[in-house]
Design brief:
- It is found in: Nucleus.
- Keywords: Metal-binding, Nucleus, Repeat, Transcription, Transcription regulation, Zinc, Zinc-finger.
- This is Transcription factor C2H2 family.
- InterPro entries: Znf_C2H2_sf, Znf_C2H2_type.
- With 153 residues, the protein is α+β, with helices and mostly antiparallel strands.
- It has a domain of 42 residues.
- The protein has three helices and seven strands; from the N terminus they run E-E-E-E-H-H-E-E-E-H.
- Strand 2 and strand 3 form a beta hairpin.
- The termini are far apart.
Amino acid sequence: MAIETNKRNRSTNRDGGYECKTCKKRYETFQALGGHQGTHKKVKLSDETNDACLLNLGIVVHKSSGLHRCQTCMKEFETGQALGGHMRRHRLEKALILMEKESMWQQQAVVEKAESDVIFAALELQLLKSKEDERDEAKTELVLAAQEWRLSV
């Protein structure tokens, strides 16, 4: 069985199929071999992994355990993709909290408007009452003046 070298880690033979040179596993298709070889090419994490972007997202990679930890709830995930999916939950929770706060602010604004309307109405009533009181006083003074005038005539 003759083997031809295809590229770095791949070889093929006349029987068909592809073999990984790294671990000697065999695959029927070139695509399957290519997908498998990605597992051998995983990038080793450097000390710089926890950069500002990852920290802003709440993601910390722990090299010793190879796990990705959520900084919000401290759950650990084997892959960054799983952690990313999990983080969506926290984003949704934050959005709901913001919506609740917004709703409370709107309700508070309605209450404050109603209170200010009540205060304005009370002031308006006071003003009307004071004007009525002034008219009543003026009428009373006119009646008294008329009575005095009649008595003097």
